[in-house]
Design brief:
single chain, mainly alpha, Arc Repressor Mutant, subunit A, Tetracycline Repressor, domain 2, 2 domains
Length: about 210
């Protein structure tokens, strides 16, 4: 019975993800989601108390499994910090510029100013993920590989460098201003130029 229950919940989540991405939060009614899922509204409400709760669950699921694997790329002993950060950068860019994540991000930004939805999504999504990055930057600072006064700010600097020219055009449906590989390579180069200890061997400038 548990397996069937989990399967039904996932079917509802999949239907909701498609509906929110296509129609937006406001237009995607619980009735429309129920029809897509082949379920009744009563069934939907037995799993999720409200559309806001369902939307939150969809957003967090879209980020959770991929984000966990993504940030695990940093949970290593990095003998070559440049290579480690570039691999993370490419994976992160692939994640945040995927059509699914871009669609859900548009909806989240549009609807996020209403009530507690936006703060909840941000605290459980980007804020938590980049907190994990900050923890790794702090660890590398203790090892002497980085000179970081505030790991949280350093993590946000890395985020901005990796997203520049990619995420904003993607949200507008425009062509990216830079390739994914170039964004990762140059973003990491600039980040390390700012955060390498003065006595640390310089990274390859390429």
């Amino acid at each position: 019975m548990r397996v069937r229950t989990d399967e039904k919940r996932q079917a509802i989540m999949d239907a909701a993800s498609a509906a929110f991405g296509e129609m937006g939060y406001e237009r995607a009614s619980m009735a429309a989601i129920a029809r897509r899922a082949g379920a009744s509204k009563q069934t939907l409400y037995s799993y999720f108390e409200s559309k806001e709760e369902l939307f939150s669950a969809v957003m967090l699921e879209a980020m959770a499994s991929q984000a966990e694997a993504l940030f695990d790329l940093l949970n290593v002993e990095a003998s070559d910090l440049k290579t480690t950060l570039e691999a993370f950068g490419r994976a992160y860019i692939d994640f945040v510029t995927s059509p699914e994540v871009l669609n859900l991000t548009r909806v989240a930004v549009t609807e996020g100013g209403q009530g507690t939805l936006g703060p909840r999504l941000y605290s459980h999504g980007p804020m938590r993920g980049w907190g994990a990055v900050a923890a790794n930057l702090e660890r590398w600072a203790r090892e002497g590989q980085l000179a970081v006064d505030d790991a949280r700010i350093a993590a946000l600097h890395l985020k901005g460098l990796l997203e520049a020219g990619l995420v904003e055009p993607g949200l507008y449906g425009a062509t990216a201003a830079v390739s994914r590989d170039d964004a990762a390579r140059h973003g990491v180069r600039i980040f390390l130029a700012g955060y390498r200890p003065a006595a640390h061997p310089q990274a390859d400038p390429s």
